[in-house]
């Protein structure tokens, strides 16, 4: 993978930990130029149970000539680990894993090559110049891939629509949660009305939330209080937006922190994303019985299923303000809905099921069988068609 932040980072750490617990030798290769102290602590903790360790190398986000040097560095690092499987996460990680795996195979080391987009390049519009470029690259890289593993049906459909019908195997394996994450989170005594946790970038919609809070203030004369937790490239612009809208007393910014500790900062989780694949924060909030307002993007409707929830169109400030107002105005009803939503989630999204399903795909690509593989509770491997 490239950057050790956000849901993709969480996914990789969970998958690696579960695979290690199942007796496999696992390592992670990731970028060295992104992430802060919070991510460094996570990586240090992960290193203790990864037999092949953690290798950090500079890997740029955008496509540029330096990618050739990055690919060479990744190749040297991975070659020495002698892997049976290379699983790339995100667009850049996926490209490197498939290219390096193919080079290893041609030099006599058979390697199964897998790719999980996590949204990535699929977030680009189909008609944009950047989108057409990245989709063409994705199409080309299918030649070097043994299997696509999507984290949501939405992502699988987006891949088909933008890249084309996969020419390699394609399955859906949803994200999973640990058992302890289904324990209820109780808001702190000084918790704010709303909590946002995630990347501070426009794709995730923090600006929509801020403007929705201003709209509520203009309607009612009082702005809901907000805890905004996270870091990212657009953080400075959100701070300016809060000041420009006169919300400095209502909105407080916090550095990244463990999810469950962050959840206790608010009575209502708001996920205002403009695009997603299968966001962990939605899963985590529902599992913790924390009331949720989210946008109807990506795999979020798949997580919600038939459970009561409030999904609003992405980017629509007034609709977001309406949903927040409804949730805050009737806390008893909102709380009841949160408990019902948790009950529907418990059996569907577990880290054990995620790892077991992924392992079976690895084994199939290697022409092996998984002895004693669990079947109960494993999500169906739906074809990308």
From TrEMBL:
<feature type="domain" description="Glycosyltransferase subfamily 4-like N-terminal">
    <location>
        <begin position="5"/>
        <end position="177"/>
    </location>
</feature>
<dbReference type="Pfam" id="PF13439">
    <property type="entry name" value="Glyco_transf_4"/>
</dbReference>
<dbReference type="InterPro" id="IPR028098">
    <property type="entry name" value="Glyco_trans_4-like_N"/>
</dbReference>
<dbReference type="Pfam" id="PF13692">
    <property type="entry name" value="Glyco_trans_1_4"/>
</dbReference>
<protein>
    <submittedName>
        <fullName>Glycosyltransferase involved in cell wall biosynthesis</fullName>
    </submittedName>
</protein>
């Amino acid at each position: 993978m490239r950057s050790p932040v956000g849901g993709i980072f969480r996914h990789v750490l969970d998958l690696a930990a579960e695979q290690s617990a199942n007796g496999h030798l696992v390592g992670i290769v990731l970028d060295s130029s992104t992430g802060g102290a919070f991510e460094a602590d996570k990586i240090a903790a992960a290193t203790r149970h990864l037999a092949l360790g953690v290798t950090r190398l500079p890997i740029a986000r955008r496509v540029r000539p330096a990618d050739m040097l990055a690919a060479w560095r990744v190749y040297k690092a991975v070659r020495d680990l002698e892997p049976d499987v290379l699983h790339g996460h995100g667009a850049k990680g996926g490209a490197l894993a498939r290219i390096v795996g193919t080079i290893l195979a041609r030099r006599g080391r058979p390697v199964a090559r897998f790719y999980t987009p996590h949204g990535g390049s699929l977030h680009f519009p189909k008609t944009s110049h950047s989108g057409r470029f990245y989709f063409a690259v994705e199409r080309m890289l299918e030649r070097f891939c043994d299997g696509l593993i999507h984290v949501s049906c939405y992502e699988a459909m987006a891949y088909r629509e933008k890249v084309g019908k996969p020419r390699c195997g394609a399955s859906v394996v949803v994200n999973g949660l640990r058992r302890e994450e289904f324990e209820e989170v109780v808001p702190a005594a000084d918790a704010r009305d709303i909590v946002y946790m995630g990347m501070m970038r426009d794709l995730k919609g923090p600006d929509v939330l801020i403007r929705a809070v201003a709209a509520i203030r203009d309607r009612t004369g009082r702005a809901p209080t907000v805890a905004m937790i996270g870091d990212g490239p657009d953080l400075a612009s959100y701070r300016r937006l809060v000041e420009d809208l006169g919300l400095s007393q209502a909105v407080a910014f916090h550095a990244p922190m463990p999810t469950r500790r962050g959840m206790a900062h608010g009575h209502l989780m708001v996920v205002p994303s403009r695009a997603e694949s299968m966001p962990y924060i939605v899963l985590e909030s529902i599992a913790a019985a924390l009331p949720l307002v989210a946008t109807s993007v990506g795999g979020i409707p798949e997580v919600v299923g038939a459970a009561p929830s409030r999904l609003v169109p992405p980017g629509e400030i007034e609709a977001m303000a309406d949903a927040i107002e409804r949730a805050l105005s009737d806390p008893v009803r909102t709380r009841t809905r949160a408990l019902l939503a948790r009950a529907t989630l418990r059996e569907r999204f577990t880290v054990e099921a995620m790892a077991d399903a992924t392992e079976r795909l690895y084994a199939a690509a290697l022409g092996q069988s998984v002895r004693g593989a669990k079947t109960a509770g494993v999500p169906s491997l739906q074809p990308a068609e």
